[in-house]
Every structure is written in structure tokens, then in C-alpha cells.
Amino acid sequence: MPRETEISVNERAFIQQALQENLRLDGRAFDAFRPLELTFGDEYGVADVQLGKTRVIARISVDVAVPPPERKFDGIFQIIAEFSPMASPAFEVGRPSDAEMVLSRILEKAIRRSNALDTESLCIIAGLKCFALRADVHIIDHDGGLVDASCIAVMAALQHFRRPDVVVEGEKATILSVREREPIPLSILHQPLCVSFSYFEDGEIFLIDANLSEEQVRNAEIIVTMNKHGEVCQIAKYGGATVDPLALLNCTNVALQKVKEMSKIIQGKLEADAKKRDAGGLMAELSAENER
Amino acid sequence: MPITILSPSAAIPPQHAPPDDEDIPMADDDDSAFLSTAQPSSKNIVTPGETITSDPQWMRGHGTYIPPNTSTIISTVAGTLHKTNKLLSVQPLRARYQPEIGDLVIGRIVSVQTKKWSVDIAAPTLASLPLSSINLPGGILRRRTAVDELNIRTFFSEGDLLVAEVQQLHNDGNAALHTRSLKYGKLRNGVFTALAGAGGGIMSRRGGVVRSKRQTFTLQTAAGEIGVVLGVNGYIFVSKHVAPAEARDVSITRLEEGVSETLYSSQNDEVEPGLRREIARVSTLVRGLVACGAKVDEDMIVRVYEAAVEMEEEERVMGEKVFGVGEGAKGVVRSVLDRLAVG
Amino acid sequence: MPLDTSTYSLALLRLDGRRWNELRRLHAQISVQAAASGSSYLEMGNTKILCTVSGPSEARRGAGGGGAGSSEGNLEVDVSFAGFSGVERRKRRQDKRTTDLSHTLTSSLTPLLHLHLYPHSTITLTLSILSQDGSLLAACINSATLALIDAGVPMTDYLTAVTCASSPSTSDEEAGDPLLDVNSAEEQELPFLTLGTVGREGRVGVCVMESRVRGEGVEGMVAVGIEGCARVREIVDGVVRGYGKRFA
């Protein structure tokens, strides 16, 4: 099994020493994210997130399916995150590594179980038809912080996505194409975002958004998922070195601040994208003004 | 705003009776830094995470560790504290066998390689038995040849049981065995018993094989002689005793030749039903001894065996169950031990 | 079917009659299985777990994680649910929850064990969940700790865990009371957090929360969790000492 090349002893010591002197190798502050680049595709529901060198693309697709019998009034929502060898030679298809499992579980808990998406709104006819939404997360380049980047990508893509409108007449549902009716956005209840804290020196030093080499050196990580309203959606500290409980609680405070900042960025990008789409679109068509 | 942790206002009501043993007090910073009594007493059980001493004059031994940047010795296993001069060690209550040089062990061949065998001796890693450390047929002083290498499976093959001695320990804990004595070699004509967690010659622990002067001995029974091999690793072999070929010419080289014919045979001899019964009885009693937490050594086995035979005889004469023998090996041994204590 | 938890705020008693800071009955035994290197049986209320340890023994060839050839031993965790353990009989053997449990156990116990003493070896931990009634991860952690102690594997300290929930708040300003050691009825209804601490100082080894809760609720749950873990540690320590006395 190909494994991530372990960081050399020398580099490890160097990074640790630098951290003790309050320095990160890329010059960031301890609580700073790498520059976040968010672009949307031509189609609805494609978000491309670049967090430093890490790059993740999320794509939302929709289909019509029969809802599970135990949840008649809900639609189906799946998040599929798989590592491909494209991102790093250590990733292998078909054999999920621990990191992959952690990623898909965290996304599941952060977005699906916290009810970020109102799945009831995906129902077309109770017990017969519903929309099956699927979010595919593709890791294009891996330089640490996969959970954070993937979560941003999925949330941005969900907010960007428009599903086709549907007309129900009794038992019969007709899905209207994009040409017939303007597709409608999903109903997003809140916007959870992940912040991972890596800690060093037995919990003395906390870093936000560690890159790959910092991830390899760290004692362990704590992933906190929050929304901008101050609700904690998920905390995951699966083990690793122990940490002081006060520091753990402090993480939630820092995370809230970061989540608010990031939400603002994502919101800004979404609005900019919407404006761009509108330029020659519906709004222009509807306006009766002539260019003179 | 910094977060403070407020402790809950009311204490958690106890649902359990507090542990009634005299708990070792917590470490204080005063001069009585040493918690336990001065004598190594088996009464004191230490558990993982318990501070043994913060006095820097002590050295740490097995079962303890010193957190970085401190001089506090902390226990890592649950067991009893032992002091050897200035060395503090904790003997776990139960642990896997850790090989030591000179231990007599019973092993099972797991795999055969070109020049050595891998042997399971219940240790954390498999032990190795090099071809060069066994008695080759045809004299003790013969060099091993390429032919021996090709015929390696004729000596021991997978699944064979053998008794051997730990000759050497590598620094990663792997043991190298040897069978260069007539006492050692392949085992047959008997029954194997593994006592899990009871190996290791644990000093403090009762109920296990202890390192003693004699690990192999013969037991006189009505049906014949039984050979018992007590491996320090908790593996035990009880078999029909085959007398060494003493009747023959007693020259060293001849003896070797005589033995070598049967040394690596995997064929069992004829074992009479009566003897089989006694073999089964002995191995059951050994298991019962461990279950009762008693020490397993020659003296104990002989006493318990004789008492058990006597008991059976009495029961037969009386024609009914006189003794309240419990279920299984443990019950038998318990009643035998009671009887010994009374008698 | 949703349960009515609104009565809590009136009587301050939970569904099973406990107060907010009460643990359920915690019963544990060690050395329950003669064949294993170490074993434990733990009950936290109606959650019942049997845990066995085998090893350290020679690493299997080609086993994942590169156990063979590494200078440290490795820990393998295998969690299985008995078909009759829950309300519904489960069909699939392996699912995400099982892998999640075993991953959490592996990564939380590995740094505590002194695995450098066992190069090229594997310690296999097998947990059988016989009955589930909430606090599953916490019970798994506690029973695994006990079984490893029984196996005589050197470890830094006890890792003990409890699950706490946050009761529904009465007002918008304040978070509700934290509840210690939840059962499955409470787990279905309330947000809960599993906390595992190492040693007496209460340093956090594991902290897993899967449900949405207000930020203030987390504080309360962590505070109660730390107290609860310390209490569990006392009980578990008592079990080990009680067992040790038999050999004294």
C-alpha cells in the first residue's frame, strides 16, 4: 500500500522549533486561514475551492427517486467524498484510508445530520417521488485542510445549486425543464462550516488550517463545525494527544469568529456570481428599458 | 471573554460502595514522598497512572514510566510493586510472557524457513529456532550441511510441538531458541495445555507457572510414568514418559546415535488407555490449579495429583459422591485443595 | 416516536428518575474470558459490552498499517454488534458507525499505550456490543481500557469516558442543564457529547459531538463530562484493585 511519505526528522524538528518561536513556515499567523479562492462553474451547483494549494471541487447533481419507506416525507441527500490518486500518490482507489473515512464522516455529521439542507423540501409526492440530491466531492490537490475545504465547497455548491421546478397534479408530477421555468434554489436552513485546529507541544500551540507538513507533525487535531449563529454542529477529537478542556472550549470561540468571516466571503462570492448570471439574463429581459 | 469551567454545584451521589481496600493515599509533596510501605508487600496494588514516587533517587524498572521533564515515577500496569535495591518495578497481575535467557519454554512451529523455524512461544513476537541450534542426528558435534537444510522439514515441520531453551534475546525482544540437549526436542505421546496470561514466571502472581529448579519431571502413577513439562511461557505438556535408552551402551556418541532415530519422529508410541486417563487427569488438574489461582510447580502437581487419586478411590469405595465436587477442573482442584488443607 | 422531555424542567428528574448529575449503575469485571490475553465485561446501565484483547502477538503479514517491520506495535480494533443488541435487528455487519467507533478507539488508545515496547507486534481488541442503551462510545472506551489493563499492556493512564447531553433550555438566553450519562431515549431527543479524559487531571483525550447545540451548551456538557469521567475512573480503578486483591 503506498503511504504518504513521512516527513523527515529534520523537518519535523524545524517546524516544531519554528512554532515555539511563534512562526509558521508560510508566515501566517497561528489563527489565519490560507487565502480562500472560491469560483463557481458555468452550471449551477459546481464550486471550486482553493485553500492555499489544496483544491477541492464539489458538484451537486439531482435525480428523481423513490423515498425510503421509513422516511416518506424526506428527499434523499448523499455526500460522497472519495480520494483519488490525482491528489496525492498516497491515495488509492477502492481502499478507504482512515483520513478518507474521517472526511466523509465529518461531512456527513456537519452537513447532513445538522440538517443544513431541508430534506423535506426535496419531497415531490410523499412516499412515491422525491428528489435525490448527491454531492460529489473531488479532491484535486492535497496540501492539508481537506475537511475545511471540502465543507466550504459542499456548502457553497449547495447554495449555488438550483433544482428544476416541479408541478404536481394529483399522483402525477411533471418536472419542468430550465427553459420552461426558472429553476429554484434549495432551502438551506443554516450554513455549517468546519474549522480544524491542529495542536502541538501537548496542547500549548494551536494552529488553524494546517498545511500538509504541519498536519504530519501535529499531535492531533480537533475539528469544530459551527454556523454563524453560534451553534456548534459537530466536534470531533478522535484521539491523539490529550488537551486541556479550557483550550478545547476556546476552540469553539475562535471557530465562531472564523466561521463568520468565511460565511461572509462565501456570501459575497455567491452574490457576485448571481449578479454575473443576471447580467444578460432574466432581469435584463424583464426590464422594458431600451438602450439608447 | 475567557471561559471558566464551573464545577457542578452538587457532588455526584455515589452509586457504589467505595472500594473497601485501604487505598494508597495520593502523593503529597511533603517528605513522605514514597507512598507504599518500605517492604515490598504484595498487598499494595498499583494501577496505571498512579504515582509511585517523586523522589529522584529511585530508578524506574518494568511497568513504570517517567513523564518527560519530571522525576516522578508512574505505574503503567496494574500489579504489585517490587523493589530491587534502587530499582522500582511493577509486576503486572497478568501479562503476556516476556522471554528471558535460560527459560525453558514449549513452543509450536509456525513456519519453516530455509535455515530456521519460527516458533510460537506465546511471546509478543515469534521466536526463531535456527537450524544450527538443534541436535542433528548422528552426533552432537556434527556441522550442519546443505543436506540438512534441504531436509529441514524432517526435523520439525509446521504444527510440531517442541521444548526448548531461550538462548539469546535480540534487542527488539525476539527470542532465539536452542534444543541442544537431550532434555529438549520434539514432544509427542501426550497432550498440550495452554494457560493464557499465566506464563512469564511472574514473581508476585499466584496461579501460573513459576520459574523453578525443575521444569520437567516424571510422575509415578498406577498406570505408569507420566512426564510433565512446565514451560515458563504457560504452555504445558503432559505425556507418557519414555525412559531414556539407559540399558544400552552408555558411551556419549552411541547414546546420541541411539536417540537420534526417535528424536524427530512424529509417530506416537502405543499409549495404554489407563495411562491416557492419567495424562488427562494431570492436565485437567493443572488447568484447575491455575483457575484456582494456585502456583503450578512440581511439588504442587504431585500433591494435588495424589490427593485427587485418593479421592477418587474413596468415592469408588463409598459408591457415591461424598465430596461436593464442583463443576469442571476448577471444582475438582478446589475440593482437592480443601482436602489437603484439612488433611 | 419523539419522547416528551419537557417534564424535566418541572421536577428536575429525568425519564428514569435520575438527577442531572447521576451516573447509571456501572458494573465491570475483568478477566472474564480465560482464553484471551485480557478481557472485560462492562455494563453502564443497560449498555453491555464484552471486550477481549489478544496479543501482543506477531503481526500478521500484509496486515494494513504496516504492522510488520515497524519499530512500534500497532493496535487493531474490531467492533461488532450482536444482532439482538438494539431494538431493531441489524442486517449489515459493517457500517459507517462501526468503522467510526473502531477508528475512534484506535486513535484514542494508541497514544496511551506504550507500544514501543512491542516492536513488530499487534494487539487486537475485539469488542462485542451485547446490548445498547446509549453512551455506546463511552462504554466501549471504558471496557477497552479495562481489558487492556487486564492484558497487562503498559499504558500511561486510564482513559475513561462518559456521554453528556444538554437538556432543552427553558429560555432563549441560557442553555439547559447538562445531563450526565445519557440513555438511548435521551440520546434520540437531546444533543449529546461524548468526552473521554486521561488521568486525574482531566485532560481531554476524546471529544465527539454529533448533534447541533448552542455554543453555551458545549461548555456545560464538557464541565459535567470531566466530573463524570473522574467518577468513572474511580469506579473502574476500584474494579482493578478489587481484582488485584484476589492475587495479593
From TrEMBL, chain A:
<protein>
    <recommendedName>
        <fullName>Exosome complex component RRP45</fullName>
    </recommendedName>
</protein>
<dbReference type="GO" id="GO:0000176">
    <property type="term" value="C:nuclear exosome (RNase complex)"/>
</dbReference>
<feature type="domain" description="Exoribonuclease phosphorolytic">
    <location>
        <begin position="33"/>
        <end position="164"/>
    </location>
</feature>
<dbReference type="InterPro" id="IPR036345">
    <property type="entry name" value="ExoRNase_PH_dom2_sf"/>
</dbReference>
<dbReference type="GO" id="GO:0000177">
    <property type="term" value="C:cytoplasmic exosome (RNase complex)"/>
</dbReference>
<dbReference type="GO" id="GO:0034476">
    <property type="term" value="P:U5 snRNA 3'-end processing"/>
</dbReference>
<dbReference type="GO" id="GO:0071038">
    <property type="term" value="P:TRAMP-dependent tRNA surveillance pathway"/>
</dbReference>
<dbReference type="GO" id="GO:0071028">
    <property type="term" value="P:nuclear mRNA surveillance"/>
</dbReference>
<dbReference type="InterPro" id="IPR050590">
    <property type="entry name" value="Exosome_comp_Rrp42_subfam"/>
</dbReference>
<dbReference type="InterPro" id="IPR020568">
    <property type="entry name" value="Ribosomal_Su5_D2-typ_SF"/>
</dbReference>
<keyword id="KW-0539">Nucleus</keyword>
<dbReference type="GO" id="GO:0034473">
    <property type="term" value="P:U1 snRNA 3'-end processing"/>
</dbReference>
<keyword id="KW-0963">Cytoplasm</keyword>
<dbReference type="InterPro" id="IPR027408">
    <property type="entry name" value="PNPase/RNase_PH_dom_sf"/>
</dbReference>
<dbReference type="GO" id="GO:0034475">
    <property type="term" value="P:U4 snRNA 3'-end processing"/>
</dbReference>
From TrEMBL, chain B:
<feature type="domain" description="S1 motif">
    <location>
        <begin position="100"/>
        <end position="180"/>
    </location>
</feature>
<dbReference type="GO" id="GO:0003723">
    <property type="term" value="F:RNA binding"/>
</dbReference>
<dbReference type="GO" id="GO:0071035">
    <property type="term" value="P:nuclear polyadenylation-dependent rRNA catabolic process"/>
</dbReference>
<comment type="similarity">
    <text>Belongs to the RRP4 family.</text>
</comment>
<keyword id="KW-0698">rRNA processing</keyword>
<keyword id="KW-0694">RNA-binding</keyword>
<feature type="compositionally biased region" description="Acidic residues">
    <location>
        <begin position="20"/>
        <end position="32"/>
    </location>
</feature>
<dbReference type="InterPro" id="IPR003029">
    <property type="entry name" value="S1_domain"/>
</dbReference>
<protein>
    <recommendedName>
        <fullName>S1 motif domain-containing protein</fullName>
    </recommendedName>
</protein>
<keyword id="KW-0271">Exosome</keyword>
<feature type="region of interest" description="Disordered">
    <location>
        <begin position="1"/>
        <end position="51"/>
    </location>
</feature>
<dbReference type="Pfam" id="PF14382">
    <property type="entry name" value="ECR1_N"/>
</dbReference>
<dbReference type="GO" id="GO:0071028">
    <property type="term" value="P:nuclear mRNA surveillance"/>
</dbReference>
<dbReference type="GO" id="GO:0071034">
    <property type="term" value="P:CUT catabolic process"/>
</dbReference>
<dbReference type="GO" id="GO:0000176">
    <property type="term" value="C:nuclear exosome (RNase complex)"/>
</dbReference>
UniProtKB/TrEMBL annotation, chain C:
<comment type="subunit">
    <text>Component of the RNA exosome complex. Specifically part of the catalytically inactive RNA exosome core complex (Exo-9) which may associate with the catalytic subunits RRP6 and DIS3 in cytoplasmic- and nuclear-specific RNA exosome complex forms. Exo-9 is formed by a hexameric base ring of RNase PH domain-containing subunits and a cap ring consisting of CSL4, RRP4 and RRP40.</text>
</comment>
<dbReference type="GO" id="GO:0005730">
    <property type="term" value="C:nucleolus"/>
</dbReference>
<comment type="similarity">
    <text>Belongs to the RNase PH family.</text>
</comment>
<feature type="domain" description="Exoribonuclease phosphorolytic">
    <location>
        <begin position="22"/>
        <end position="154"/>
    </location>
</feature>
<keyword id="KW-0963">Cytoplasm</keyword>
<keyword id="KW-0271">Exosome</keyword>
<dbReference type="GO" id="GO:0000177">
    <property type="term" value="C:cytoplasmic exosome (RNase complex)"/>
</dbReference>
<dbReference type="Pfam" id="PF01138">
    <property type="entry name" value="RNase_PH"/>
</dbReference>
<dbReference type="InterPro" id="IPR020568">
    <property type="entry name" value="Ribosomal_Su5_D2-typ_SF"/>
</dbReference>
<protein>
    <recommendedName>
        <fullName>Ribosomal RNA-processing protein 41</fullName>
    </recommendedName>
</protein>
<dbReference type="GO" id="GO:0005840">
    <property type="term" value="C:ribosome"/>
</dbReference>
<dbReference type="InterPro" id="IPR036345">
    <property type="entry name" value="ExoRNase_PH_dom2_sf"/>
</dbReference>
<dbReference type="InterPro" id="IPR027408">
    <property type="entry name" value="PNPase/RNase_PH_dom_sf"/>
</dbReference>
<dbReference type="GO" id="GO:0016075">
    <property type="term" value="P:rRNA catabolic process"/>
</dbReference>
<dbReference type="GO" id="GO:0034475">
    <property type="term" value="P:U4 snRNA 3'-end processing"/>
</dbReference>
